[in-house]
Amino acid sequence: MVHFTADEKAAITSIWDKVDLEKVGGETLGRLLIVYPWTQRFFDKFGNLSSATAIMGNPRIRAHGKKVLTSLGLAVQNMDNLKETFAHLSELHCDKLHVDPENFKLLGNMLVIVLSSHLGKEFTVEVQAAWQKLVAAVANALSLKYH
Amino acid sequence: MALTQTDRALVLALWKKMSTNVGIYTTEALERTFVAFPSTKTYFAHLDLSPGSSQVKAHGQKVADALTLAAHHLDDLPDSLSALSDLHAHKLRVDPANFQFFSHCLLVTLARHYPGDFSPKMHASLDKFLGLVTSALVSKYR
Fold this sequence. Notes:
The structure holds two protein chains of two kinds.
Chain A: H1 6-16, H2 21-35, H3 52-57, H4 59-77, H5 82-85, H6 87-96, H7 102-119, H8 125-143
Chain B: H1 5-18, H2 22-36, H3 54-71, H4 77-80, H5 82-92, H6 97-113, H7 120-138
């Protein structure tokens, strides 16, 4: 079970309050599909993914990015209880979506990069470290029900 | 995963813009790597890793010089990085996973200092470039 210190929790929540779920979620997912094109394998039915411009402008990708980031909001609110919080989503990603857990790490790191580009100065070394811990813990929680 | 002409142009454009400041960013990337991924510190027990350390800064500059060399020799990375490949394979023996931690932190650093230049395409090209440098560095491991 991962333990977050008070400082880490503060670093995480202070950033989260500034996050526009649709904007950041859309950009994170879009960049994932552009930088690691093989991740597009999960999004065949999402319309036009033929170019970077098409991907970043795709409203369905944007909406899905928002959905994913909203779930991450659950993590921010339940940092002491990630296993239970993500149990159902873990089952879903294994049994229905068939997503390799490696992708959770890719997405988590992508989010860190997007946050950095948006927050600049505020995204200090300590803030990044706290966020790396969170995304790694979420990636792990999401893989727990895999079989 | 080879670099296209577009990838090369983008990487070189950013390198030109960073000019003599590459060392500042690689140093910041190293600091971020040590704090976000503490296991990486095991390779630097001989250095003072406290914030602002001049030894980390010196190491950051070494890394910057190597990356700059690489950026200007995209056609023959294995050859131009040959000496560094030998060093990492036979002397330093840094586990390959660690280069990914550093590459990630370098992207985080560049994203916050050059947000306007950090388009998804630039991001992809940089990621590819760093991946190729890593491959060259570990090419002689076994």
